[in-house]
Amino acid sequence: MTTQRPNGLPVILDVDTGIDDALALAYAVAQPGLDIVAVTTVAGNIDVYRATGNTRNVLAFLGREDVPVHRGATRPLTRAQRGASHVHGTDGLGGADLPESQRAIDVTPGPATIVRLARERPGELTLIAVGPLTNLAIALNVEPRVAEWIPRVVVMGGAYHVPGNITPHAEFNVWADPEAADQVCAAPFGDLMMLGLDVTMQVGLSREVWADLQQRTDRPAAGELAVRVGRQTFVDAGMPQMYLHDPLAVAVAVDPTLVTSETVRISVTTSGEEDGRTVSVGPGPTQVARGVDADRFLAGVHRALGVRDVTAQ
Ligand code: BDR
Ligand code: CA
């Protein structure tokens, strides 16, 4: 096992791209301390084929067509897919209309890629999961040692002390595949961090920042991406901010001091009216974020997107 990281912290990103997933990719690409080893995709916000195309196109748009993208699960473990096109649009990217990536398709499926990389690099990888947890659950089902080989997992998922965003009780990623989330929370990972709506709804890209970015003619590719994926949220839906759920997970993987947390055991409700609810069942090994340094995180996002004067925003 190597402890040197000449290329930065090696990560696998598991995404269902998705507006804020696209911004998470942009944020990740902008971090010199991150080595994006692979990206795996999953059915969630949108079907997995579109999520995969979106991911490939976003990476190409950001000049990172070199990053391998592996298509993952086509549907949740035991259920039909339930998407979020009401938030992300029918294309999943709010009508961003990105050029098609020219990279050849990577043929190894997402869960198999997670198992392979975990086996090849035991003790090295951080997995950042910002969609339903289907791929990681499949990987754990076929190879339980994944929990031992991947020392650190950062998940965007759950609503712990706040209401849900898809039902009164559930956050979307967990609700989309509750069985997978429950299995991941029960697996013996050494370091599992859950970032729920408790913290991710404290961080948003403001309409003012977006409008400023939009007016500029010299914005970098990441800023142009934010302008394109933000149009539906700000112009069509007239929202005051665009939530940065998924970029926060990348940021916490790089800098865990951005959040404070409690350590508990999480169980996920898998039926009934509270389907998809994340329930704390006492002390345990999982870190659940309770507080976030929103200003410091947003300053980092603004830097990544090339926003002009981060202190003035
Ligand atoms: C999560 O659900 C998805 O719609 C977003 O991409 C994010 O991962 C927020 O609940
Ligand atoms: Ca997502």
UniProtKB/TrEMBL annotation:
GO biological process terms, semicolon-separated: purine nucleoside catabolic process
Domain Inosine/uridine-preferring nucleoside hydrolase: 11-298
EC annotation from Swiss-Prot or TrEMBL: 3.2.2.1
Manganese recorded as keyword: no
Key word Hydrolase present: yes
GO molecular function: purine nucleosidase activity
Residue span of region Disordered: 78-102
Keyword terms, alphabetized: Glycosidase, Hydrolase
Domain of life: Bacteria
Cellular component annotations (GO), alphabetically ordered: cytosol
Pfam families reported for this sequence: IU_nuc_hydro
Protein name: Inosine-uridine preferring nucleoside hydrolase
